[in-house]
Amino acid sequence: MTTYGIIAPKGKFTRVNDDLAIGATVSVVVPAMNEAENLPHVFATLPYWVDEVVLVDGNSTDETVSVARSLRPGLRVVTQTGRGKGNALSEGFAAATGDIIVMIDADGSTDGREIIRFVSALVGGADFAKGSRFSSGAGSDDISVTRSLGNTVLTTLTNLLYGTRYTDLCYGYNAFWSRHLDALALDCDGFEVETLMNIRAAQAGLIIHEIPSHERCRIHGTSNLHAVRDGWRVLKTILRERARPVVTRRRRALPQVSERAAA
């Protein structure tokens, strides 16, 4: 069998399975607020070869932090200083030490067992691997008709304005090489963060692969997402980014599904 490897600055070489070995460390960033009941499931899906898990606690009032620490020895906990998912991810990314950073949700909707697909795409040559619920082989148990329609409209607008070929704009399962953090330059607070990342990755000319992903329903609790309010924030982000100067432009990004990742 073929082994795919890439030499990373830290010099680590980890075999993930018979087909994939990575010379890179992997950090998983999990923003969470009052997700104590969901974390046992979420952490159980994380691959054994993940090097670091960074929990960004949004000042939870339940046992989120203590449960997380009991489940994951060596867990890194970042107490969020601001508010919102965008801010939480920014603080988590800054604290992560891995060569590859993966972002997942703490509500059980994103499956940690899919991380291999994202890492495979990055090791295979991608700079940024974005999850999609609407590409071939993907799906969602959770998205409503209203949210799906809104996502389609916003995705289409982004594709028209930025020359991308995305199938899903507003999904919180993504991974990228940490060396591209400066290109993403996150400076937003809310749920528009995924849109901002996708647009700035394209503007920076990063090689982007879309990864088919299946979104599950939240296991416990209620979502903080508000379709109209957050949709409006996404729309404003799409339009505002058109006027932002782009300093780094290496090559045009043409999102595609990595064959290795989809296997």
UniProtKB/TrEMBL annotation:
<feature type="domain" description="Glycosyltransferase 2-like">
    <location>
        <begin position="27"/>
        <end position="171"/>
    </location>
</feature>
<protein>
    <recommendedName>
        <fullName>Glycosyltransferase 2-like domain-containing protein</fullName>
    </recommendedName>
</protein>
<dbReference type="InterPro" id="IPR029044">
    <property type="entry name" value="Nucleotide-diphossugar_trans"/>
</dbReference>
<comment type="similarity">
    <text>Belongs to the glycosyltransferase 2 family.</text>
</comment>
<dbReference type="Pfam" id="PF00535">
    <property type="entry name" value="Glycos_transf_2"/>
</dbReference>
<dbReference type="InterPro" id="IPR001173">
    <property type="entry name" value="Glyco_trans_2-like"/>
</dbReference>
<dbReference type="InterPro" id="IPR050256">
    <property type="entry name" value="Glycosyltransferase_2"/>
</dbReference>
